[in-house]
Design goal:
The protein has 228 residues and is α+β, with helices and mostly antiparallel strands. The protein folds into two domains: 3-46, no CATH class; 52-226, no CATH class. Helix content is 41%, strand content 14%. The strands form two sheets. It has a five-stranded antiparallel beta sheet with strand order 1-3-4-6-7. The protein has a two-stranded antiparallel ribbon with strand order 2-5. A hairpin with an 8-residue loop joins β3 and β4. The longest helix has 23 residues, at 24-46. The chain is elongated, with a radius of gyration of 32 Å. The chain starts with a helix and ends with a helix.
Length: 228
């Protein structure tokens, strides 16, 4: 190796270390700044889009309107068989029916429904601003204990099972008229919807008379008769 090449490397090395030592403070500050900028860039690239909260919350509302079904009372299928579904054991039933009742009452009054308010909001949630500003909310509706009847007509498949609910509804909200008698229907795992309200609702729906037999509802539910 030529005599001069080793000396050149050492000279360059000494010069580089000397420069870093002389500029230690700006070098450290620059390193921190680069790390911070890198963190911001990674955050921007990995953050969810602005539409994600709306998508998630609309899905939450859909889940409230169509909650998961509890275990069904039949082991093998016998289409058109009626069953009493025992409303009191399903904690998700009343909230779903209240939401559907609020939607129906708001639609009948020509006002924006809860579901539409959530879908239209940029950052909606079932209990958020879009819903709390509605003229009538699900939380303002109650279904008195003992006034709710819940049954099913077994279908040839899960998609053809039909669920019915009949009950009285109450609210202290005076902004939107709320019928005192509601009939709800659900097909398969779809959403609950109000299919008839007010006087004669059980006949107007019509609720299958097979649910009225002994061992199911034991006759037409009292809410139907008292509001007839």
């Amino acid at each position: 190796m030529p005599a001069g090449s080793g000396n050149g490397v050492r000279a360059g090395g000494v010069s580089w270390r000397t420069w870093v030592e002389e500029h230690r403070r700006p070098v450290i500050i620059g390193a921190f700044a680069a790390a911070a900028l890198l963190g911001i860039l990674i955050g921007l690239l990995t953050a969810p889009s602005s539409g994600s909260p709306a998508t998630n919350d609309v899905a939450d509302v859909a889940a409230q309107r169509a909650p998961a079904l509890l275990a069904l009372p039949w082991a093998t299928r016998s289409p058109n068989t009626p069953f009493n579904m025992k409303a009191g054991i399903d904690p998700n039933l009343r909230p779903a029916l209240q939401w559907a009742a609020a939607d129906a009452a708001l639609a009948a009054a020509g006002k924006t429904t809860l579901s539409a308010a959530v879908a239209a909001s940029s950052s909606p949630s079932p209990g958020g601003t879009a819903v709390s500003a509605a003229a009538l909310t699900a939380d303002e509706i109650t279904i008195p204990s003992g006034s709710l009847y819940y049954g099913a007509i077994e279908g040839s498949s899960a998609a053809n099972d039909v669920f019915w609910a009949v009950g009285l509804t109450q609210t202290s909200n005076k902004a939107v008229p709320l019928p005192s008698l509601e009939v709800w229907k659900r097909i398969g795992d779809g959403p609950w919807t109000v299919v008839a309200s007010g006087k004669g609702a059980c006949e107007n729906a019509p609720v299958p008379t097979s649910l009225y037999v002994t061992g199911v509802w034991g006759g037409q539910p009292p809410p139907c008769r008292t509001q007839g």
